[in-house]
Each structure stands twice: as C-alpha cells, then as structure tokens.
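Progress against Task 2.4 (sequence-to-structure conversion) is shown through the following example record, which the project officer requested during the mid-term review.
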Amino acid sequence: MEDVVKQLLGKRAPFFLMLIGVEGLKPITDNHGYAAGDMCMLELAALLRNPLQPGDTLYRITSDEFGVLAFGDEDSVLERAGQLRSAVETPITLPSARALLTASIGVASGMHHGEDFEILLKRSSLALTRARKARLERVSHPETIRMFQPALELEAVQRMQLQDELRAAQDGRDFRLLIQPKVSLATGAVAGGETLLRWDHPRLGRLSPGVFLDIAADIGVMQSIDRWVLRHSVKAAKELQQRHVPVPISINIGTDSLDDALLPSMLADLLQEFDLPPHLIEIEIPEGALMHDVDRSIAILTELSAMGLKLSIDDFGTGYSSFSYLAEFPVHTLKIDRSFISELTRSKAKRTIVQSIIKMAHHLSLEVVAEGAEDDEQVRSLRSMECDKIQGYVFARPLEIDAFVEFAKANSPTNTPDAETL
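Structure tokens generated for the chain above:
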C-alpha cells in the first residue's frame, strides 16, 4: 500500500485512505485460537470487497485492521464507508464459532491531509481512534465513521502532555473526592453516596474522570489511582460516620482493580485501619468489567461479600450480560445505566427495559438504583415502577464532604417530607 500511496501523492491524484478497525475478534481468539481469528478476517475480507468501487483497493494492515484506498468525492467515499461498516457487522459462521463483529472507520484525504504516506496514515489513524472512542463511550448514536480534522492532531499532542502530567500526579496530591448522594424514593432521605474522582490540574483546572481515566488505563497507572480512591473513600466513610451520617459509601472500581489479587486484602486492611464497619462500604463494578472474566469475577465478589461489603453492578443494561448471570454474582444492588434513565420519559422501549430490570431485580431480592435522573418527571416515573433509589442532578450534584453532610442531615428520615410529595 505504501508504494501506491506515494505514487498517488506524487501525481496529486484525489483519493482517500480509510482505516477499518474491527472489534470483537478477541473473544474468538481467546476461546477458539488464533487460527479461528485469522479465518474470521479472511471471511471478512471477502465481505469487504463487495461494496468497493472499480479502482478501490483493500489491504490487510494489522491483525484487526484493514485499509482501503478509495476514489470519488468525499460524500461517496463516506457512503462507501457506511457500506463497509455494515459488511463487517454481517454475522460470520465459522466451523467452531459464530462471530458478531463491529467496525469503526477513520478516513483521511490524500489531497488535503497527506504530505507523505506516514502523515496520511497517522491522520487516518487519529480519525479511527476518535471513532473507536465514540463507540466505547456508548452514546446513543456514536459517530463510528470519522473524517480527519486538524483538531484531532492538536488533541493527540495534548493527550501526550496529559499522559506525562498524569504519571506525575498519580501520587494523588492533586486528586479530590466528591460524593454524590443516593436518595431513597420511599422516604426522600439520603440513603448512601458515591465517591467521584476529580483531578485539580494545575494548568487546566478541575477535570472529571472522563477526561483522564482512559489515559490512565493506556499508560498503566489505573491501579495506583484506584488504590488512592479506595483509601480516601474509606477515610471519607469514616468521617461521615463520625459526623453522624453513617450511610454506605460506594466506590467504583474497574477491570484493572478487579483483576488485582490484592484487592480483598487491601480493603480488609483499610477497614481495620479506619475501624469502619464493612456494611458502610459498597463496591460498584461496571457490568463490562464483571463480564471480562466471569469465573474470576465470581471468585472476587464472593470473597468481598464474605467480608460484609455491599456489592453493586454499575452501568447495568449496557448489553454485556444477561439476567442469567445475576444468580451467579453475589451482589446486592443493580445500578441502571444513565442512558436508559435519560430516555425514560421519551422512549417507550427504554421505559419497558427499565421496568423489566426493576421487576426482575426485585424478584432476585436486589435493590435498584437509577443513575442520572435529572427531572421530576423521571422521578415520578421511577417511583411508579417502585425503583428503590435515585442518584442524579434532580436531587444533588457531586458535593464536597461538608456539603454532603449538610445535605444528608437536611434530608434525613426525620427531616424529609412524605416521599409522595417530592
């Protein structure tokens, strides 16, 4: 491909370089071996040739990426990219498995984005990275086909700078914890809180985790950050107990910490150090992290539950697992993903899903927390479904610990009005 691109650039010929990133191959290779993964990519190559126009060329770039040199105007090339994405999403049947793949696509113009091959390849790769990020963020309509824009290059430079700064900041000196209340729909009282990490960046101000946690995972500092959050969350829970607000505090952990064999012993040591009853700590684990290695997740959760800790599945409903796994996981709470709550009063389908989750959870003796509620209409709807708790801006944003104490005391069972009037 490199020689062809160099010739086209030399002729100033109009063309586009598309990079197609294939997602979903890892379960195939993990469960059926690399030969099955290679066979899958061969089948996929045949499917990808169908949407190509005369003159277009398909290349295998890496184990999970294809490249396409495409000709035509921008609109027609982007339309073709949509057809290529659909081709990737065609189910592939192998002798030992059935593959359901997805694709993200980055596109760069040879006329406008590539002084040479390396620059053009880098810029199409930046567009692919942005498209993949949109898919991972699970927005309602992710832009999984992206045309390169100069702003992406600036973002890449800034990201590298943030990587260096985050390595220096992982000791926690500039980290802060806020606590967002969880409110009982039955009583209107504060029934818990979740600690949320913020980075007080010396140059950029206070940053939310969405800005830097994926960078932390990329550079391998996620475990050290999680350990900082664990320690300071337990410390915050102890302070709340001492200030007569003994509500459970939730700590969100990801795949890296769930894979850490030292997690249970670290939590046990922290509970002992701060003399905190284990029922005042709840560990929230994203649904996707639990499904990363089901057997290991069950073992870790069983150990944490035996310590007396409460356990919650975060982001529930985002498509990774099914109710059949809930009987296996020793959890106490399901936290419905905010993407369902935000559409609750506008989408009949989302409302039906939320109602089904709540009913099934209650049949399994699990509590349900709705995350991301922002208006009274959502609250009324969730109350009618008998949801247990709400966490969202409709009641309170994440608060400093002093403000959380004040809010909790103002919304204690003795100070709250009848929940039906809320």
